UniProtKB/TrEMBL annotation:
This is Biotin synthase. InterPro entries: Aldolase_TIM (IPR013785), BATS_dom (IPR010722), Biotin_synth/BioAB (IPR002684), Biotin_synthase (IPR024177), Elp3/MiaA/NifB-like_rSAM (IPR006638), rSAM (IPR007197), rSAM_sf (IPR058240). The gene is bioB. Pathway: Cofactor biosynthesis; biotin biosynthesis; biotin from 7,8-diaminononanoate: step 2/2. Catalyzes the conversion of dethiobiotin (DTB) to biotin by the insertion of a sulfur atom into dethiobiotin via a radical-based mechanism. The keyword Metal-binding applies. [2Fe-2S] cluster binds at residues 119, 150, 210, 282. The lineage of its organism: Bacteria, Pseudomonadati, Pseudomonadota, Betaproteobacteria, Burkholderiales.
Length: 339
């Protein structure tokens, strides 16, 4: 299997009323996705909610927890990230890999709060072989609690992906971040093809793919459409798609990124739901600054997962009590565990 960036074409004469069906992933090019963005807001939400109800329990939200198992000191220069060794003014020191015992304790606490998936992230370009025994132990221990497991460790070799699969890892997260034609303005130390190559290795190992991006980094709507088109073109499509709203962090190159209109973010969630009908759409970073009304619109647009906990790696997240209260007020139920 070979993954490569899809071709970018001039805007085709695609009418909003003649966009492809949700199941026709092969024709979700940038122009077709951009046409979805151009639909009247309520028409777009109606279409997204229709697709959502065809594929997913309409009033269930999957609850996840995310733990930074190795923080700071990353050699990558991702412009949004405080953990890069290039962004020392962000004030995140390099730490060591947590012990599997400490990770297991955090997983128990997450489960007690209601999480059914436990995600573990390490600030690495790629894991070293000396790390693999500890990482696979973490997977086995967390999975033994009855939690789904996910890891994001940077680029993987094929043998590492197989080792994680054999240990019982359910999902591997590796985001595309943005469209190919905007990517170079955000990251220089890893190519777009590097990311696609890691996704290929993850898929070939039999792992479920968690892959999404970040909205609000200064990209255009067409570039947002380009990201969604890339995700929709993956074969198979990702089972899990996190949609992150940029959290501008002091000391990073994107600390002064212009604010994104909240309706544009909701539109992105809706477009992702339509073009990736079978995926769990994860309302991820940036919720802490969103109003309850905006989050409710995201659920109406097809988002059906959130992260619980006061922190997502190094950025703030909504309090657990506030999240559970919001779900109750909206009549939404936590999705049952699948592990």
């Amino acid at each position: 299997m070979s993954l490569s960036p899809i071709a970018f074409h001039g805007r085709a004469a695609v009418s909003p009323v003649s966009t492809p069906s949700a199941d026709d992933a092969s024709v979700w090019n940038t122009a077709a996705v951009e046409a979805l963005y151009g639909l009247p807001f309520l028409d777009l939400l109606y279409r997204a909610q229709t697709v959502h109800r065809q594929r997913h329990a309409p009033n269930e939200v999957q609850l996840s927890s995310l733990l930074s198992i190795k923080t700071g000191g990353c050699p990558e220069d991702c412009g949004y990230c405080s953990q890069s060794s290039s962004h020392k003014e962000a004030g995140v020191p390099a730490g060591k890999l947590m012990s599997s015992a400490a990770v297991l304790e955090a997983a128990r606490a997450a489960k007690a709060q209601g999480a059914t998936r436990f995600c573990m992230g390490a600030a690495w370009r790629n894991p070293k072989e000396r790390n693999m025994d500890e990482l696979t132990t973490m997977v086995r221990d967390v999975r033994a609690l009855g939690l789904e497991t996910c890891m994001t460790l940077g680029m993987l070799e094929a043998a590492q992906a197989r080792s994680l699969k054999e240990a019982g890892l359910d999902f591997y997260n590796h985001n595309l971040d943005t469209a190919p034609d905007f990517y170079g303005q955000v990251i220089s130390t890893r190519t777009y093809q590097d990311r696609l190559d890691t996704l290929r290795k993850v898929q070939e190992a039999g792992l479920n793919v968690c892959c999404g991006g970040i909205i609000g980094m200064g990209e255009t709507r067409r570039q947002r459409a380009g990201l969604i088109a890339q995700l929709a073109s993956l074969s198979p499509q990702p089972e899990s798609v996190p949609i992150n709203h940029l959290v501008p962090i002091k000391g990073t190159p994107l600390e002064g990124a212009p604010p994104l209109d909240e309706f544009e973010f909701v539109r992105t969630v809706a477009v992702a739901r339509i073009t990736l009908p079978g995926a769990v759409i994860r309302l991820s970073a940036g919720r802490e600054s969103m109003s309850d009304a905006t989050q409710a619109l995201c659920f109406a647009a097809g988002a059906n997962s959130i992260f619980l906990g006061s922190k997502l790696l190094t950025t703030p997240n909504a309090p657990v009590s506030a999240d559970l209260d919001l779900l109750t007020r909206l009549g939404l139920q936590p999705a049952p565990a699948q592990a």
